[in-house]
């Protein structure tokens, strides 16, 4: 089959079709999408080599599966199910895990993938497949609500109006709290506002403007410092940025201000698919362009351009 392979450089090549092991099924990819994580991996993040990609919707083609012929989205962490982390409900932190297209597991920029059947979620009939491809990043947005309780009376600042920032803002909009999505780019602020998201330029913030919860999804190493400078004492900072560059922050201000820092990644697919199928979150305005799989290298170039939001690949 054809696949987008990364081994220090990206290339399309012929590779053997994957074969499911016990508990796994074969899935034919229908749509995939390029994520910032993919762009970071090709800069060296995670040291991954293999077939890239983890955001997808596809059809189960293993005949013996209960999901045969169904459209599915899939959780990306493949846990061992036997270790202490797995037994205590922290499968996404299983030390023996592989991660689709990120760590020891070939990804979705290919004709077929294999995943454990238990990772799969049927796409509801009411949901378009282009929307369903957002289940993974939306799950990462919903994860914040699994981690912290946010009172509707509290003020929330979200820094970074990229793909994840927009999804997070759309989830916060449902919570009823006083949220604002900030960006340095007026084009991104305009885009967010066109999606009825409360958004503003970072330059409109003064030193006195502070929130109870700040979320960094800028994707920049300096995003953390900016978010911290607008956090009330005893406020919570949620970190969503992962970059190839390691980051430096002044830990003294955490002690002095008693800030709480919460790292956040991945999330539950079921609530994400529920939000999408009930049209409480509409991600379609985030698709900047759709490429055919044979043009995926062009898709990667396009995805790295400033101003591009989601690049979807049609297989
Ligand atoms: Zn992703
Ligand atoms: Zn485990």
Count of domain modules: 2
Number of helices: 10
Mean pLDDT: 94
- Structural class, by secondary structure, is alpha/beta
In the CATH hierarchy, the third-tier topology of the largest domain is known as: Quinone Oxidoreductase, Chain A, domain 1
State the fourth-level CATH superfamily of the largest domain: Medium-chain alcohol dehydrogenases, catalytic domain
Gross morphology = globular
Report on the biggest sheet.
7 strands, mixed
Bound molecules: zinc ion
List the secondary-structure elements in sequence, H or E: EEEHEEEEHEEEHHEHEHEEHEHEHEHE
Computed over alpha carbons, the radius of gyration is 19 Å
Strand content: 25-35%
Can you walk through the features of this model?
With 315 residues, the protein is α/β, with parallel strands linked by helices. Helices cover 25% and strands 28% of the residues. Strands 3, 5, 6, 9, 10, 17 and 18 form a 7-stranded mixed β-sheet that branches. It has a 6-stranded parallel β-sheet with strand order 13-12-11-14-15-16. A 3-stranded antiparallel β-sheet has the order 2-1-4, with no helix packed on it. A hairpin with a 3-residue loop joins β1 and β2. It is globular. The model has no long low-confidence stretch (mean pLDDT 94). The structure holds zinc ion (2 copies). One zinc ion (ZN) is lined by residues 79-80, 82-83, 85-86, 94, 96. One zinc ion is lined by residues 79-80, 82-83, 85-86, 94, 96.
């Amino acid at each position: 089959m054809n696949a987008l392979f990364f081994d220090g450089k990206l290339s399309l090549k012929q590779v053997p079709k994957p074969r499911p092991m016990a508990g796994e099924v074969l899935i034919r990819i229908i749509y995939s999408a390029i994520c910032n994580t993919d762009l970071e991996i090709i800069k060296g993040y995670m040291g991954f080599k293999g077939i890239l990609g983890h955001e997808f919707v596809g059809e189960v083609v293993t005949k013996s599966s209960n999901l045969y012929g169904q459209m599915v989205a899939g959780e990306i962490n493949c846990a061992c199910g036997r270790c202490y982390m797995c037994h205590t409900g922290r499968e996404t932190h299983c030390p023996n895990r592989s991660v689709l297209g990120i760590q020891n597991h070939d990804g979705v920029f290919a004709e077929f993938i294999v995943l454990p059947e238990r990772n799969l979620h049927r796409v509801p009939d009411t949901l378009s497949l282009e929307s369903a491809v957002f289940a993974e990043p939306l799950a990462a947005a919903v994860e914040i609500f699994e981690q912290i309780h946010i009172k509707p009376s509290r003020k929330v600042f979200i820094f970074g109006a990229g793909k994840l920032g927009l999804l997070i803002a759309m989830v916060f909009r449902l919570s009823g709290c006083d949220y604002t999505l900030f960006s340095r780019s007026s084009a991104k602020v305009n885009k967010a506002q066109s999606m009825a998201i409360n958004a503003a330029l970072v330059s409109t913030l003064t030193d006195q403007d502070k929130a109870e919860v700040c979320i960094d999804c800028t994707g920049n190493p300096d995003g953390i410092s900016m978010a911290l400078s607008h956090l009330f004492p005893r406020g919570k900072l949620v970190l969503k940025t992962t970059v190839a560059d390691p980051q430096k922050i002044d830990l003294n201000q955490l002690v002095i201000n008693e800030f709480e820092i919460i790292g956040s990644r991945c999330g539950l697919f079921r609530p994400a698919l529920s939000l999408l199928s009930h049209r409480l979150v509409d991600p379609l305005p985030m698709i900047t362009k759709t490429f055919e799989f044979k043009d995926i290298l062009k898709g990667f170039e396009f995805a790295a351009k400033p101003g591009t939001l989601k690049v979807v690949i049609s297989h």
